[in-house]
UniProtKB/TrEMBL annotation:
Broad class of enzyme this protein falls into: hydrolase
CDD domains per UniProt: SEST_like (cd01823)
Domain annotation SGNH hydrolase-type esterase: ranges: 26-265
Gene3D superfamilies: SGNH hydrolase
GO molecular function, one term: hydrolase activity
Identification of the protein by name: SGNH/GDSL hydrolase family protein
Stretches of the chain forming a coiled coil according to its record: none
Entry's EC annotation: 3.1.-.-
Keyword Hydrolase (UniProt): yes
Keywords carried by this UniProt record: Hydrolase
Length: 276
C-alpha cells in the first residue's frame, strides 16, 4: 500500500494537482502594467498591456490563474481604495485580488507616490542651458525628493504585511525600477541637463534601495531591475533601449514616454524567475 501511494504521488494525481493550484496576483503601477504598450488588455481603465511582465511570467511558469490588477497611475493608496480609470471606468482596490489561495504576488509601486515621472518632466530643458531641477530641489541643503523617498520607505513594509494578512501562503516579490537614463544623460535626445539626469537616476536608485531594505526587513523578495537594465536606458537606440524617451518610438509598440517598452517588460521576467 505504501509503495502504491508513493507511485501515485510521483506521477501526480488529480487531487495533488488541485492541492498545488498556483494563483498569481500582479499588483503595481504603469511600470508593471505596461501602460500603452500594444496590444492592450485594458486600455480605458488601466492602460494595461497584454504582454506586460505579469502576463509573460504567468505563461512561463504555467500558473493556473493570473489576477493582474496592475494599473497605470497607481499609488499605494489604490491598493486599498478604488482607482478612477485613465479614460473611463474604475479599477477596484488592488488588495481585493488577494485571497487565501494566492501563491505568488509581484508588486511594483512607489514611483507615483513620490512623483518620479513628475520629477523627470520638470527637469526638461529644451536648451542646453537653463534652470537646473536638481538645484531647485536641493536648495537650502535639503533634498526634497530624498526626503520624500525616505519618508515613504516604511510604506513598503506596510504593503508587504497587508499582502501577507490577505494571502498568508503567497511568496511576495517586490519588483524594483529600471535604469532610466545613463550617467550625465544624453541631451538633446533626452533633453535634461547632465546634472539633472544624474539627479533623476539617483532618486530612482534611492527608491529601489528603500524597497530592497523593506523587503529584507519584512520577509519578501526583492528583484533588482536596475542592474540588468544598465545600457538599455532611454538614451539608447531603438532595438537596444528598454525605456522610452520623451518622444516614444512607436516602432516598439510603446506610446508612453519615460516608461518601459515591450522589450523592457519582457526583460523583467528572467530577473523575477531568478528569485522564485
Amino acid at each position: 500500500m505504501a509503495g502504491t501511494a508513493l507511485t501515485l504521488v510521483g506521477i501526480g494525481t488529480p487531487a495533488l494537482a488541485a492541492a498545488e493550484r498556483q494563483v498569481y496576483v500582479a499588483m503595481g503601477d504603469s511600470f508593471s502594467a505596461g501602460s500603452v504598450v500594444l496590444p492592450q488588455s485594458d486600455l480605458f481603465t488601466c492602460a494595461r498591456s497584454a504582454i506586460n511582465y505579469a502576463a509573460l511570467l504567468a505563461k512561463e511558469i504555467k500558473v493556473d490563474e493570473l489576477r493582474d490588477v496592475t494599473c497605470g497611475g497607481a499609488t499605494t493608496s489604490d491598493f486599498t481604495n478604488p482607482q478612477k480609470g485613465i479614460i473611463s471606468g474604475t479599477n477596484p482596490p488592488q488588495y481585493g485580488a488577494l485571497s487565501a489561495d494566492t501563491t505568488l504576488v509581484t508588486v511594483g509601486i512607489g514611483g507615483n507616490d513620490i512623483g518620479l515621472v513628475g520629477l523627470a518632466t520638470s527637469c526638461v530643458n529644451l536648451l542646453p542651458v537653463g534652470a537646473s531641477c536638481k538645484a531647485a530641489n536641493t536648495a537650502g541643503g535639503v533634498d526634497k525628493y530624498a526626503t520624500k523617498i525616505d519618508a515613504f520607505a516604511a510604506t513598503y513594509g506596510t504593503v508587504i504585511e497587508q499582502i501577507r494578512q490577505r494571502a498568508p501562503r503567497a511568496e511576495i516579490v517586490m519588483v524594483g525600477y529600471p535604469t532610466g537614463i545613463k550617467p550625465r544623460g544624453c541631451w538633446p535626445l533626452v533633453p535634461v541637463l547632465p546634472q539633472d539626469a544624474d539627479y533623476i537616476q539617483a532618486n530612482m536608485d534611492r527608491l529601489n534601495a528603500r524597497m530592497a531594505e523593506q523587503s529584507a526587513a519584512h520577509g519578501a523578495k526583492y528583484v533588482d531591475i536596475r542592474t540588468p537594465s544598465i545600457g538599455h536606458d532611454a538614451c539608447q537606440p531603438i532595438g537596444v533601449k528598454w525605456i522610452e524617451g520623451l518622444i516614444p518610438s512607436v516602432v516598439n509598440n510603446s506610446f508612453a514616454p519615460l516608461h518601459p517598452n515591450a522589450a523592457g517588460l519582457a526583460a523583467v521576467v528572467p530577473s523575477i524567475r531568478k528569485v522564485l
